[in-house]
Amino acid sequence: METPGIGIDFGTTNSSVARADGSGRVELAQFPHAGGFVESYRSLLYLDHVKERGATRIRSWSGPAAIDEYLSAETKGRLVQSLKSFLSSRGLKATDVFGRRMTLEELISRILRDLREKAEARFGGKIEHAVVGRPVRFVGAETEEDDRFAEERLRQAFHAAGYASVEFEFEPVAAAHYYESTLDHDELILIGDFGGGTSDFSLLRVGPSVRKRGRTPNDLLGNGGVGLAGDAFDAKIVRNLVSPALGRGSSAQSLNKVLPAVPNWVYSKLEHWHHLSFLRTSSTMNMLNSTKATAFEPEKIEALIHLIQEDRGYELHRAVQSVKVALSNQKAAPFVFSDGAIEIHAPVERRSFEQWIGEELAQIESCVDALLASSETQPEEVDMVFLTGGSSFVPSVRRIFESRFGAAKIRTGNEFTSVARGLALRAAAPASDHRC
Questions:
Q1: pLDDT value at position 186?
Q2: What pLDDT, on a 0 to 100 scale, did the predictor assign at position 1?
Q3: Cα torsion angle, 319, 325, 327, 329, sign
Q4: Can you say how many angstroms the Cα of residue 259 is from the centroid of all Cα atoms in its chain?
Q5: How would you write 317-354 as a 3-class SS string?
Q6: Cα–Cα distance, 133 to 152 (Å, whole number)
Q7: pLDDT score of 79
Q8: CB atoms within 10 A of CB 121
Q9: Structural element, H or E, at residue 235
């Protein structure tokens, strides 16, 4: 009996699992959520604890169930998000969770275990081996050694989650496998994969004749990547819309001096919403409560305290995502975030958002141009550009490619699951097809 190929796209924000047979048929795992099913599984973890016979037992939920538990809890536990972004960090080995030291690999493995078990239930069979996506450059990785370190941590998390073996493939190359399955002719393509934490690019030859003769290393002209994408865009929305309403730029009286009310490092953490739970420490909360007493705008500090104390990072992220999606479809949209002491209602124009993310757009442009230069490829030689991932919808991101290759060459499709589909096709392909 033919063993299906399993592909797993463990993303910064969302994950998905697909399986493919030798004929090229691909099936996405579906996960229960809100009375229906979804193909994307949120890459987050919610933890709380209960006392049993004098001992503390830590409970965990991942994906949609984690969101449901978090939203329904009267006393909030710990919502942990964007764990993939920490893989290259040698400084973050573990974190304290209700008095227990838990490693990053252990936290990630809890998500991967749940992902495996739920996919097994949908597919009706054990999952022990998989082709797993990885970015060209992990978030925060500055050297190839950093990348290898991050990949090995991810491998260890998969093993701890019950996977006997995993093989890694670059995420844009996986997306190319999916795109290739739709072709009846050969092409030189540029793949742009925009995740939550990274933007990755691959330039390669694909098509029926490539599959027929078997891939060679020469079919892959080059890879490029930069450790920023959707989360970096979100951070600029937080910096310009949210942080000022929570006291950034505000002042406080200190003896005979007027000083910033809150240190900037607090707002830097706030910009990375998955860091919010790290702010909920006794020392930080004591500092903020003390600051509120001397602040010129104490109501803003009170709103900041509420956001951190109640761990409203998920709700804030939803509000940021909502306005970002709206600005992809219209030239202006309202940003609304209302929760307890926080009331933020602000109109946002697309041109303002594009100015905020100008530095990130320039880095993406430079990465694409560097890939073309290193592969000695002229834009007119590229037959098609396939863009995937959530940030591929941002108009200013699309313009980077339209200005270089022409709008007629831009293709999209299955933006949130194309990598998983391609990984499954890669897993099901003959060994000769794995050389690229």
A1: 95
A2: 45
A3: negative
A4: 36
A5: HHHHHHHHHHHHHCCEEEEEEEECCEEEEEEEEHHHHH
A6: 13
A7: 87
A8: 12
A9: helix 230-237
